[in-house]
What does this fold into?
Amino acid sequence: VHIGLITEISSVRQRWLDIHGTEPTAKDVNEMFERFVPQQEACLSEYSGLIPGTIEVVDECRKRGYKIGSTSGYLPGMLAINQADGEKQGYKPDATFGAGDVPRGRPFGHMVLRNILELDVSPVQSVVKVDDTLTGIEEGLNAGGWGVGLAISGNEVGMQLDDWNALSDDVKQAHRNRIYPTMYQRGAHYVVDSIADLMPVFDDIEARLKRGEKP
It folds into this structure.
């Protein structure tokens, strides 16, 4: 899907046309995807380091009795690599489902709903979907849960931690000024910089649930 969407970008489509003389077809997309998968699998572990604060937040969630489910757009082979790397660093969710495990991937809520069924979570309104992508936020909303966007530590900034830390405060704030409103516009109930900032969000959601509020 992602490769197909890239070929729909006008500048990319024009460059393809300049080189190949014809517009990219579904066959071209499939061939690129087949070449891409082994390349991605080969380098995944280089980018599988846990985001700072992950273990601490997960430990606190465990103390509170939260169940932790995970969703991913990765293919099974990629997901297996990612899960193994996470376990080596001390992170293992209670359940994980990929796009291949459900009829439809993001932004549909199917992967979240599979987690809900697997983990026997009730009510659905107590579910919190945390994601660094816009479609991932929508995924949680479409499953009936709360949506929390991670603005800085993932896709929307797309930087390694060292590169982010090297930025000036003004540039960092410019990223926040761009990403926070975008995530709220896509329906996020909360937006924070990274997973390290989640516990106050969970506190607030718990208080709202006790007051009878729903997503």
The chain has a mean pLDDT of 95. The beta strands are 69-72, 95-98, 128-131, 146-150, 190-192. The chain has two domains: 2-46, 52-210.
